[in-house]
Amino acid sequence: MTTLSLLDVASYLPENRVSADWYAEVAESDELSENVMFKAPKFRHHIAEDETAVDMVERAAAGILERHGPAAVAGADVLIMHTQLPDLPFVGCGGEVAKRLGMKPKWILDVHNGGCAAFPHMISLAQKILAGAEPGTKAVIAAAQNAAGQIFTQPHVRTLAQAAIPGDGAGCGLLEVSDASPILGVECRNYSEYAGDMVYKVDPPRKYWQAGPGEGHVGFTESKIIKVLARGNRQVPEVAHAVCAQIGIASKDLDLLVTNQPNRLFLRNWREALELPEERHPDTFDECGNLFAAGIPVTFDHAIAEGKVKRGDVVMLAAFAHAGDFAGAAAVRWGGRS
Fold first, then answer.
1. Is the preceding omega at residue 297 within 30 degrees of 0, hence cis?
2. CA-CA to 122 of 20 to 30 Å: which in 82, 149, 177, 182?
3. Which parts of the chain register pLDDT below 70?
4. Cβ neighbours of residue 107 under 8 Å, at least 6 residues apart?
5. Given this model, what pLDDT does residue 1 score?
6. What burial class does residue 205 get, using C-beta atoms within 10 Å of its C-beta: 0-12 exposed, 13-18 middle, 19+ buried?
7. Cα separation of 263 and 42, whole Å?
8. 291-316 pLDDT, tens per residue?
9. 118-130 and 295-305 are packed helices; what angle lies between their axes, rounded to 10 degrees?
10. For residue 154, what are the contacts with CB-CB under 8 A and spacing of at least 6?
């Protein structure tokens, strides 16, 4: 397999920083308000009314353009995008992102099933494409989470316990065929037996695209939450341990663990399962909330900027998606920012 490196990551958070009080002032006591899954972060960021997912990715890519130059992005052979809430029906964001960044890649993919684990999923896809029948040298991967300020601020949804958890943001990665910052191992697993367990709920019932009363949101119940907690607690350590086995390192010897950021309980359980101290598991939850797929690149970018990772460190990126239908992990020997 051709050696692929994660040369850099960059991220963007919208300017609108929203405190937990904004939700607390209208919160109603629903049956899930005391559930550990919905203990609100102190802050989260919301996409602006006139801002799009493409805008956010373009702003996230600014750091990579500044450090590596426009040609490093424009010359990429592959662009892979994950968007939580596409700007238009039918049309993914990849084509418009390529246009904004001056790219003319051979491959543009808009992927959806990776969910919160989309970043390792996109690394895996890029690795295979760049080593395939039409080999290339560079790829750009990007994740945009834009549902918090659009779905979870609806007047009724805002009163629900689930509304205060998500935040908006975007993250990008620049990949290159080289050994500068090598991807040491990748593991992606589909758990199709859980597909369909995440549901979109509207009362009275209707399809999400049909006009009518009621505001759409995620259909959580106590029994579903118990299942998601069990799956997430198991799956993230499983894929991380699988990558550790591939590369011959014990999980406790990882220099950094970067996961998606769903809630404090998962964050604690994952680092304990991998036998890592809190300082080796960066946490953006209280500032950003649950960033879904953008959680890994945003958190990794912040960890680099804060000096929590140094050249030569082995960094594990790991996450699970939706109600547990997908999980992925990738280990990187970080080459530093030039």
1. no
2. 149
3. 1, 133, 338
4. 77, 78, 79, 80, 129, 134, 136
5. 55
6. exposed
7. 12
8. 999 999 999 999 999 999 999 999 99
9. 90
10. 215, 216, 217
Instruction: Tell me how crowded residue 90 is: count the other CB atoms within 10 A of its CB.
Output: 5
The reported pLDDT for the residue numbered 135 is 74
Q: How far is CA 51 from CA 45, 134, 146, 147, in A?
A: 13, 35, 9, 12
> Tell me, what amino acid is at 129?
I
* Interacting residues of 205 by C-beta distance below 8 A, sequence separation 6+: none
CA 60 centroid distance within chain:
13
* Domains by residue range for the chain, with CATH: 4-179 (3.40.47.10), 185-334 (3.40.47.10)
pLDDT given for residue 42 in this prediction: 97
Q: What's the token pair of residue 198?
A: 């995440």
Q: pLDDT at position 37, please?
A: 86
* 88: Cβ contacts below 8 Å, ≥ 6 apart: none
Strand partners for 317: 258, 330
What is the rounded CA–CA span in Å between residue 157 and residue 168? 16
Nearest to 129 by CA among 143, 144, 141: 141
Q: What is the Cα–Cα distance from 178 to 176, expressed in whole angstroms? A: 6
Q: Cα angle at 197 between 242 and 201, to 5 degrees? A: 140
CA geometry: angle at 296 spanning 293 and 297, to 5°?
100
| Token pair for 116 | 């919160």
Is residue 196 classed as helix, strand or coil in its secondary structure?
coil
Pairing type for strands 4-12 and 43-46 reads: unpaired
* DSSP structural state of residue 19: E
CA distances from 313 to 288, 316, 331, 336 (A): 25, 10, 10, 9
Pairing of strands 43-46, 326-333: unpaired
* Residue whose entry in the numeric block shows the structure tokens 């530093």: 336
